[in-house]
From TrEMBL:
InterPro entries: Rossmann-like_a/b/a_fold, TilS/TtcA_N, tRNA_Ile_lys_synt, tRNA_Ile_lys_synt_N, tRNA_Ile_lys_synt_subst-bd. ATP binds at residues 6-11. This is tRNA(Ile)-lysidine synthase. It is found in: Cytoplasm. Its main location: cytoplasm. Its EC number is 6.3.4.19. Residues 228-295 form the tRNA(Ile)-lysidine synthase substrate-binding domain. Ligates lysine onto the cytidine present at position 34 of the AUA codon-specific tRNA(Ile) that contains the anticodon CAU, in an ATP-dependent manner. Cytidine is converted to lysidine, thus changing the amino acid specificity of the tRNA from methionine to isoleucine. It catalyses: cytidine(34) in tRNA(Ile2) + L-lysine + ATP = lysidine(34) in tRNA(Ile2) + AMP + diphosphate + H(+). Pfam families: ATP_bind_3, TilS.
């Protein structure tokens, strides 16, 4: 197992927990830190994290420098580069799992961000405890509050580094962390973070059930040429129909990350609205076109 450590309290606490548990679990435990190169001195900090991980007894430990592109904004680009580097590190070391330090507070923030975007329940289900190809990514602290992780570091005198981005009001997530959630806790009580994390779990179960339903429904409305029958689609509950449409768009080559609810709603109106004919352009050069009683979604 490899722990992905930024040097922040959450992932340092996780690294220490992994080092402690590894002998009992009978696993070899290592660590990796990613240097995004976005701030002056980030390489020195990465070297410091490597030292700390070694002191905890983790082996192998490495720091990986990545080049962050600009696509989708700096936060998204850094995340993409980080996951690519973590994937490569897992391959290099033959690691079955990469542990991430996301906590219940991160989960609550993710749910609120989804709510504010007007997303469906898949977004409200936040981060999964297990994700990635072959279930590589694990988030063992997803039920743990951030304060406990911080305390664990203090009790063990583990030095941690606070990413200045996490406190920078220019970032939506940071405003939510430092202003939004405390205000919500003041108004609604301390249990709000835990409640939001529970919402995430309930939404995940519901979203999984709807996805399974949509998988079966898709087979029922598709003709031999892969076109979708509008009458069959129309008869489906909207939540299932939108999932069938989304799945068809992704199969036609639309990148899942750029396919938003508003795109699917537009395609949905080709079936349910007055626009009997017409075409909707989707990301990835995919076009959804109504042809009489059929809907064709393919590369345009
Ligand atoms: N530069 C990095 N190198 C390695 N892993 C990272 C890095 N940045 C983030 N991670 C991993 O992703 C998790 C979530 O990171 P994120 O920045 O979203 O949250 P955070 O609350 O700042 O976490 P932390 O307190 O551990 O830095 C971290 O706990 C860690 O496991």
């Amino acid at each position: 197992m490899l722990v992905a450590c930024s040097g922040g309290a959450d992932s340092v606490a996780l690294a220490s927990a992994l080092a402690f548990e590894a002998p009992r679990l009978g696993v070899r435990a290592g660590g990796v830190t990613v240097d995004h190169g976005l701030q002056a001195g980030s390489d020195a900090r990465a070297a410091e994290v490597v030292l700390r991980l070694r002191e905890l007894g983790l082996d192998p430990v490495e720091s990986v420098a990545v080049r962050v592109g600009r696509e989708g904004g700096p936060e998204a680009a850094a995340r993409d580069a980080r996951y690519a580097a973590l994937d490569a590190a897992a391959e290099r070391h033959g690691a079955a799992a990469v542990l991430l330090g996301h906590t219940r507070d991160d989960q609550a923030e993710t749910v609120l961000l989804g709510l504010a975007r007007g997303s469906g329940i898949r977004s409200l289900s936040g981060m999964a405890a297990v994700s990635g190809a072959g279930g590589r990514y694990r988030r063992p602290f997803l039920q743990l509050d951030r304060q406990t992780a911080r305390k664990a570091c203090m009790v063990q005198s583990l030095s941690v580094w606070d990413d200045p981005h996490n406190a920078d009001p220019a970032y939506t997530r940071s405003r939510l962390r430092h202003e939004g959630l405390p205000a919500l806790e003041k108004a609604l009580g301390k249990g709000v973070v835990e409640a939001l994390a529970r919402t995430a779990q309930l939404s995940r179960d519901d979203a999984d059930a709807l996805d399974a339903w949509a998988g079966r429904a898709a087979a029922g409305v598709r003709d031999a040429d892969g076109r979708l029958e509008c009458a069959g689609l129309h008869a489906l509950p909207p939540a299932v129909r939108r999932r069938v449409l989304r799945r068809a768009a992704i199969e036609a080559g639309a990148p899942a990350g750029s396919l938003f609810a508003r795109h699917i709603e537009e395609v949905d109106r080709l079936i349910t609205g007055w626009r009997g004919q017409g075409a909707i352009n989707l990301p990835g050069k995919v076009v959804a076109r109504r042809q009489g009683g059929r809907l064709v979604i393919r590369q345009g």
